[in-house]
């Protein structure tokens, strides 16, 4: 309840003459508790209900402060009608922008508006002109000398009975600049925008295991082998090369092939069992190379237009130095042992989780943050964070907030495959991008619903979806039969539905599809062993994937999220549930991408896709240019026939082009 | 942005080990800035998203403090699924309730849950039992002696290896009472509920002009005449008798009959031109009677079950004592005159508005509040406030807030016929009830839409609609032809759609319908002259109105708002737009009211009204009991035929009754 209702007296009330209210300000996340997210070049459109008692004319401005600004910039707001106002600002620098609103009674505009009606009605206005002259004099008293003289001139004209002088545009302009904003209302909160670089929204990730990157089968891959692999990854068109943890791997309770409980001698263990005698989260697994090699890899990747993403998994093997140096950061059991990770009745004795309820939580937080800082100092700007939802929320808010204040270029990808509230909350707390449920959305209706949830509900202002068809942890059942069509449609949807996507290779392009017994996971998973891949396999999807990434880069609509829209495809006057069509366009539909996917891996599917020709100003006849096959179809009207054969190519990615664009 | 993101250091961070988050708490008005409203006996259902990192079991409580409570009461919250929780409390006392939420990791439940899974899997649990025993000992240390002993017994059993002891309901109960809530998260805001008496929601208002209440034509009515009129108003079934301003009326610029610019000698003027030589807002117009007479009227009304509502119009005639005593409360014009009310080019020279931007705004606020206090001291508990939207919002928030703190029984009706944002905002600021746009909603679709807006959107938590078919200021065009049917349907809808309604009589029951030239207002309006009414006119609607109020009192569903629902009425397989059907039921449909209205004043309209028989558990055959005509129809199934003739009775008010209820 506001101050007002809790005090009978007025002594502590503040300025009771503020008459303007500002309400329902959007965008806002949880009443301004968390920032919204944007990338440089974006517009932020702020709307609010702004009104006062009575019928006076109001004025309102957006106040905006960029990361380097010492003071506010003001942008005018416009009344859209029904007391609803809008203002827009653009964000041009990475870092945190702050915005708020100020509104007040526009005394001059109110006076001018009423004078106009009096003059129209032929009323005597002498006294009204005197009232106006006093306002003009008040503005003059707050204006620099030459302007003050101009204003005094206007005041004199009004006093002399010149009503027309009141309606001079120049006077209105000067009055809006210099008349004090009496009893102005400032919106009660300052709101924040986390502004990231474009890669935060538009990015293609490729994950590979460095230890499987050796040219020679059976050999442990190194950073140098990864450097040799860079041309391949760049040719596929990716932006970010993501490596699983590169740290020393634990010895005690090391897992063997296919997650067997005991490793045989010589088995490499899981890179997520972090820490050994050689060091912990700030050390490099010796078989991968040295810190100098790592620096070389970072630089080489950059020369191919790739940024390196490291995997930050805050957990320790029993051999991690932290276990010895900071036993207080782990939970002790009554028998003197350290509590290993569990999901009863399952036990993960190779992993010790940190105890975020430790009495030395501050020491733990500083140390964990210093892990990021260490790798930032080595040139890393992108982090994929393993299971952030099993670590304290408040830690992430503080850690990412502090790191981004010093390094606003950082990108954090949250790997939280958990309940929606938790997944979305991590994005509020600061994670730039997040893995999603896309991997499990396979039916038309659930894909459509999910796209709607991600792009049309309040989460769109803070949640950065990243669509992955697979990960080392996830091989979903639709892949088990090994249909090439499924591999094509899933990767095409991931790459064109959302501006950010990623895949785990070379497993994916080589269409690995055999699951481990009883789990949605790969057999002979690289998590537990070194593999060797034939990148030149003639069945590889590499050229298809390269084409997808190239289409993304040359078609602006695919670089945004909020513009996605689902279209029905009918067959025999009913929805064909096997054909999923969706579009993405630039504003005003100057550039239109329409994707049609056959979700049925076995049958040809056909139907009539509905195109909003009028809304998109396509005219009677237009061209559907399939960017995948570089084929052009002449389409007419609202419904056009499509047919997709899973045996050949189950996806259309059309650019719809107007007639006048045809010859080019 | 939260504290966390703005500090690199942890010194000022607070407790970093709070792991639980509380979000999306409902109900809340503008992030808790304003209270929600309820009446005594209501339940407040609070929901929230509550979750933590990881997979621990959580516990949450609602904390509630009533108007007289010194400390919090706690109500458990229940997990509904998907991290969404619900708790309920009831409000039993008028005044302000405060509620908030607290949630924490339930360490014992987490341990018990995991132990259960381990035992099921046949695992060794000796160490786990020791962990549990330590928790039980911790609880014992915080429990009173006898309980501590019981808990120590449980701890001993666990230490002795008795896993079954862990699952004793008694242990769970004691642990939930005594184990400290470690690192609990309190919701960041305290939220408020304004709890009013039932009359605040369920009320029927009757407005009359005391000066027209004399038995003898041409005589100025008095409070004594109003006392003589009380049996009539009570017989009609009203709860509140509302009088236009009763204060001395200004002389200068007094308005004559039909709002003519100059009054003839002897014309009484408008009661809203408040203040004369006899006094202002705390004085009584001498022709109405004395303060003693007024006290008698208050007491007599109460003896008939009626409360008196006064009209508070904060404006002054040029003769008001404030004009002389406090010229600083009005706006001065450069020619030395006081600024009268205007809506250019219209001038209202008989009215001076207060200047809420006066430098003595505090003096003005105190004085205006003292007007309410004066009449409260005379026994008035209900106020109708004239044009509150032309007075400062902050004044209302302070004034109503302060008054209700001392007098929580007060009811304030806002007469703000203005834009929706402003109308709704006055309700947030404290007005109990509000006039609505009902008066102008005449089509089926717009009535349906308006009912939805009032009862299903966020405004339902703070806006108290009061439906009026007419007022002294409003005679809408549907009445002009004088159709009895329109008078019947409009008053029936006002009385049954919303729990609060009101009408301006005897004008309404006597079906006055001739408008003043060019305005939606009555000809020969009582605002400007004394009228005389023949209450015994055989065409009077008095018995119909009495029947409506009686139906309201004996049918609980009509005493709430949120339960209204619109039903289609079909004719020839299309919606009959002339028949409007809506229902109100108690929870679980134990009591069902179904109203059908013929909106067409000239033609018989018929159709098939759709009844959700399954949802309402009505069975194959049920009774539709028309409470207006006391006629019973046997209905079958989902669609039943209705036919309404405007020439006889254009409204059905059915109570739908189950077969087993039939013989009664």
TrEMBL record, chains A, B:
Glycosyltransferase listed as a keyword: yes
Ranges of residues in domain Glycosyl hydrolase family 13 catalytic: 207-552
UniProt keyword Transferase, yes or no: yes
Keywords for this protein: Carbohydrate metabolism, Glycosyltransferase, Transferase
UniProt record similarity statement: Belongs to the glycosyl hydrolase 13 family. GlgE subfamily.
Classification via PANTHER family: ALPHA-1,4-GLUCAN:MALTOSE-1-PHOSPHATE MALTOSYLTRANSFERASE, GLYCOSYL HYDROLASE FAMILY 13 CATALYTIC DOMAIN-CONTAINING PROTEIN
Protein name from the UniProt record: Alpha-1,4-glucan:maltose-1-phosphate maltosyltransferase
Highest classification ranks of the organism: Bacteria, Bacillati, Chloroflexota, Chloroflexia, Chloroflexales
């Amino acid at each position: 309840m506001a101050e007002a209702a809790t005090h009978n007296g007025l002594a502590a009330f503040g300025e009771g003459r503020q008459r303007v209210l500002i309400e329902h300000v959007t965008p806002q996340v949880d009443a301004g508790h968390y920032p919204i997210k944007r990338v440089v070049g974006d517009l932020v459109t702020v709307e609010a209900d702004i009104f006062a008692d009575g019928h006076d004319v109001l004025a309102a401005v957006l106040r905006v402060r960029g990361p380097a600004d010492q003071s506010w910039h003001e942008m005018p707001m416009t009344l859209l009608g029904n007391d609803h106002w809008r203002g827009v600002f653009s964000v041009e620098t990475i870092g945190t922008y702050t915005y708020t609103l100020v509104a007040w009674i526009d005394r001059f505009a109110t006076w001018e508006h009423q004078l106009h009606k009096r003059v129209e009605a032929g009323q005597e206005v002498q006294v009204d002109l005197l009232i106006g002259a006093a306002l003009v004099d008040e503005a003059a008293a707050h204006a620099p000398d030459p302007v003050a003289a101009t204003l005094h001139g206007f005041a004199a004209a009004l006093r002399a009975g010149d009503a027309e002088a009141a309606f001079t545009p120049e006077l209105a302009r000067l009055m809006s600049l210099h008349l004090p904003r009496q009893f102005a209302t400032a919106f009660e909160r300052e709101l924040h925008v986390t502004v990231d670089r474009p890669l935060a929204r538009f990015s293609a990730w490729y994950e590979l295991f460095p230890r499987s990157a050796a040219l020679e089968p059976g050999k442990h891959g190194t950073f140098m082998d990864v450097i040799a692999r860079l041309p391949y990854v760049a040719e596929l068109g990716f932006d970010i090369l993501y490596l699983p943890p590169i740290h020393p791997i634990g010895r005690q309770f090391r897992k063997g092939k296919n997650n067997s409980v005991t490793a045989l001698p010589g088995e490499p263990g899981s890179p997520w069992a972090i820490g050994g005698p050689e060091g912990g989260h700030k050390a490099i697994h010796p078989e991968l190379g040295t810190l100098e090699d790592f620096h070389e890899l970072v630089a080489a990747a950059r020369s191919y237009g790739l940024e390196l993403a490291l995997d930050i998994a805050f957990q320790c093997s029993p051999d991690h130095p932290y276990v010895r140096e900071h036993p207080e950061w782990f939970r002790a059991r009554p028998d003197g042992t350290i509590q290993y990770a569990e999901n009863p009745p399952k036990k993960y004795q190779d992993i010790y989780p940190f105890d975020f309820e430790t009495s030395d939580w501050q020491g733990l937080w500083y140390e964990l943050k210093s892990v990021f800082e260490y790798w930032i100092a080595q040139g890393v700007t992108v982090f994929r964070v393993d299971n952030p939802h099993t670590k304290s929320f408040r830690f992430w808010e503080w850690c990412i907030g502090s790191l981004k204040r010093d390094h606003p270029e950082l990108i954090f990808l949250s790997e939280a495959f958990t309940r929606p509230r938790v997944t979305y909350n991590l994005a509020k707390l600061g994670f730039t991008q997040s893995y999603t449920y896309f991997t499990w959305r396979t039916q038309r209706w659930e894909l459509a619903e999910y796209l709607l949830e991600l792009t049309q509900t309040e989460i769109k202002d803070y949640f950065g979806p990243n669509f992955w068809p697979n990960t080392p942890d996830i091989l979903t059942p639709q892949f088990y039969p090994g249909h090439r069509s499924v591999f094509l449609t899933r990767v095409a949807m991931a790459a064109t539905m959302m501006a950010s996507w990623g895949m785990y290779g070379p497993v994916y392009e080589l269409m690995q599809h055999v699951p481990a017994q009883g789990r949605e996971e790969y057999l002979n998973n690289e998590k537990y062993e070194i593999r060797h891949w034939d990148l030149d396999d003639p069945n590889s999807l590499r050229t298809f994937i390269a084409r997808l990434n190239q289409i993304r880069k040359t078609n602006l609509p695919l670089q945004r999220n909020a513009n996605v829209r689902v279209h029905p495809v009918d067959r025999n006057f009913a929805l064909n549930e096997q054909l999923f069509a969706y579009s993405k366009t630039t504003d005003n539909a100057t550039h239109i991408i329409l994707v049609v996917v056959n979700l049925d891996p076995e049958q040809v599917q056909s139907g009539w896709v509905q195109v909003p020709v009028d809304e998109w100003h396509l005219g009677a006849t237009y061209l559907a240019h399939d960017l995948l096959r570089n084929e052009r179809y002449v389409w007419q009207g609202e419904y056009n026939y499509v047919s997709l054969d899973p045996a050949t190519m189950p996806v259309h990615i059309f650019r719809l082009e107007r007639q006048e664009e045809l010859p080019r």
